[in-house]
Amino acid sequence: MKRTTTAFLFLSFLFLVSFDQAEDAPTPETVKPNILLILTDDQGYHDVSYYGTSDIRTPNIDALTNEGLRFDNFYANCPVCSPTRAALLSGRYQDYVGVPGVIRTNVHNNWGYLDPAVSLLPDMLNIAGYHTALIGKWHLGLESPNTPTERGFDFFYGWLGDMMDDYWAKRRHGINYMRKNREIIDPPGHATDLFTQWSVDYVKKQAKSDEPFFLYLAYNAPHFPVQPPDDWLAKVKAREPELTEKRARLVAFIEHLDEGIGKVIQALKESGQYDNTIIVFSSDNGGLLRDEANNGPLRDGKQSVYEGGLKVPTCMVWKDVIKAGSVTNYKGLSMDLYPTLVEAAGLKVTHPIEGKSFLPLLRGNEMSDAGRPLFFTRREGGRTYGGLTIQAVQLDGWKLLQNSPFAPQELYNLKVDPQEREDLSASEPDKFKELNALMMKHLQEGGKVPWQRPGE
Question: What is the pLDDT of residues 141-196, one digit of tens each?
Fold first, then answer.
């Protein structure tokens, strides 16, 4: 029997009210499709070989683009972890659900508290009859009521916290955040290998079930510390002897990750589930430049609201629905996956969200992102941020951003300046004023939502 949570009760009511509408929601299969959502951590926009990056080999991720749809303009909601994950799972802007910044162990340096009343993607898919699982990184709360099995997931096998200080020891600040549901566990092995094997086991088990499944496979890799297995590093160094030590380590780390993704896809194929599974691959933000990540020609990287911190490699596969080898320039955000996958499962979202379904795009129809403002925000502490926000808004190719709370705002025309080199804030005052008004309204709305745990 499914668990009962506040969000689940609320959505159950909505479902009963809108049942007739839900039956009409677009569902291209008579049998509901399984959903595999793969999210990597800090993978750079061009740290995949399908963009022609010459020093890296990602054949399994490349295969997904060959068998499905490649998004060349897909954006993470935020340039850091927790906010993007909150947006992805809620379909809302992260500051509208209480996660404007990174959730951390230390409450004095914690910048988010996921609203317990917000419906998450597994809640909705539970209503649609799915078995829901999270394997890997959660990073949206360390204790009740914000643990995975209290927020809609039937099964959790992975890492409750943020980064790991070591991929073999699997600790953060000396604390073991590895869990199987609510049980503290301490399995040996590299975290990437563990998450891969647990996902393979889950896929094979679900092949024997009549329930469709939703597996959210959230790897910690390639987030620092960059720790590839020794044999993978040796292989990359032998093949690419000109690489720096840092770059070689990151390339090996990602190639090891790519092999894990391939094993999970192979398990789908061997168990006969591949043809009826929607596969999503994306990253939670851009690559970290100090680890020598490759964000292509884009400016900057992780932690920045320049394009290199926000644009991420993304693709989707759905056999016989998505045209193999297709490419789109449509601008989507992490939060758009929520309504897209809910509708693909046969339901409609009837409560307010900012995410926009691109299911028609998957089915080969044209979609336009014209006229849609896209907002990116992050709140953070320390001397760099001082508890304030950095932010950006995009609209029809124009982008206004403030990459430091203590620096002026900058305006760019991405259509002619995708590298964000020429600041037009002085020469385009009307466009500056238009975008600034949008950004201020967004920040005001986000400011209405508490982002600290009550009593702390």
Answer: 999 999 999 999 999 999 999 999 999 999 999 999 999 999 999 999 999 999 99
Q: Measured between alpha carbons, how far apart are the two ends of the chain, in Å? A: 34
Phi-psi region of 163 (alpha: psi -120 to 50; beta: other; left: phi over 0): beta
**Separation in Å, CA 327 to CA 68, 72, 416:** 8, 7, 21
Q: What angle do CA 69, 74, 76 make, to 5 degrees?
A: 135
> For the chain, which domains are there?
32-362 (3.40.720.10), 374-446 (3.30.1120.10)
Per annotation, catalytic residue among 46, 131, 139, 223: 139
Q: pLDDT digits over 73-109, tens only?
A: 999 999 999 999 999 999 999 999 999 999 999 999 9
- Residue 173 annotated to the active site: no
Walk across the sheet containing 410-413 and list its strands.
Answer: 374-379, 389-395, 398-402, 410-413
Q: Is the pTM higher than 0.85?
A: yes
Which helix (H) or strand (E) segment is 194 a member of?
helix 191-206
Query: What is residue 224's DSSP assignment?
Result: S
190 assigned to active site:
no
Long-range Cβ pairs for the range 15-18 (8 Å, 24+):
15/127, 15/347, 17/350, 18/348, 18/350
Which of 81, 190, 223, 442 is flagged as catalytic?
81
